[in-house]
Design goal:
ten-stranded mixed beta sheet, binds S-adenosylmethionine, Rossmann fold, five-stranded antiparallel beta sheet, globular
Amino acid sequence: MTEPDIDTVAAKLRHQLAEQLAATGWLRSPAWRAAVEAVPRHEFVPRFYVETDAPGLTTWVPVTPELVGLDKWLRQAYADETLITQFDGCEIDWADPQPISNAHPTSSSTLPTLVVRMLEDLQVEDDMTVMELGTGTGYSTALMCHRLGADRVLSVETDPEVASRARDALTSCGYRPRLRVGDGLLGADGSAPSDRTIATMGVRSIPAAWVRQTRPGGLIVATLRGWMRSLGLVRLTVEDEHTAHGRFLSSDPSFMIARQQDAPESLGMLPSSDEGTTRHTRYGPELLTKPDSGFVAQLALPHARSFSMPGDDGTMSTYVLDARNDAFAVLTPDGEGWSVRQGGPVLLWDAVEQALALWHAAGPAEFGLTVTPDAQRVWLGAPGGPSWRLPA
Ligand SMILES: C[S@@+](CC[C@H](N)C(=O)[O-])C[C@H]1O[C@@H](n2cnc3c(N)ncnc32)[C@H](O)[C@@H]1O
């Protein structure tokens, strides 16, 4: 394929991607559609990894024009897929790229369905300014530059190498937004408050800087997450420089967590088998992974992590450990259901069961979030309803 061919084929693939995104219902407005049809995603992902669908350990394989051919690489670049460009905060060795397992993606070009969904949720208007946290490859930044004009877009990336590649790709496509290298949890000090703020990394709670740096009446669209799972997508209206409130739009979307908020590496000491008290529970560990109950469990246990491990007799147990203290819950099958052994300053599984009881009693109700200078609380139904505090 020659250079002009690439442009022709890429334009066709962009059109197909736009059709596909429109068919899902997430791409709705003509202005965002025009951006998807115009911005060459392949310029932002010259080489990347994609997840294989082989069973077993999650594995990613490299995709570059040299490895798979120009045509296949281009098609992958316009697939509705997340394209991973970094693992574990380390640069990839592109001289000899190998399949990768046992690693955590730390930068990517996000799934286009999710990108356009969040951009639509942002409800921008022509003359608005946007602050983006998590530049990544720069693709979503470029979409915003196309939609609003680069002088209305400010984007912050924590990783200098990632930021530098994004800057190069944006420049070569003719976009010159304001780009900062730094911790986006601190926003972008010194710039005027934006009309809209969007985060393409997950956060454990909404950083105070984002509220302060979004104008009153402006919107923040972000994904919240804990160390067990995502809490999904939330849209907040900023009331004043310290206060914001809004509802969860969905509990599905998940982003890689902001680097500064990752779980501590060490799990600490595992509880020994004679610690704690044991009782029967009707809920097994699957509740942690189911969409709705998992969301509620994550709210009830904001500092917890969970993992499964076989015991001496081969029986698989699920451990839930609080990173702040020695609280633990260990779930083990007990024939008719599950038994839970708990100990430490907080009874973690009791907290999960209480949260589930409140959720069941409330019936179908949406979750929302209120941010004040004192606390951030996720509430059920209405701000005065049952609520859970997010980590500060
Ligand atoms: C999912 S990627 C962003 C995808 C991007 N919007 C795109 O379209 O390519 C998340 C990015 O957030 C960055 N990130 C993580 N923590 C950050 C922080 N505290 N401040 C700014 N960027 C951060 C990561 O380095 C990564 O590049």
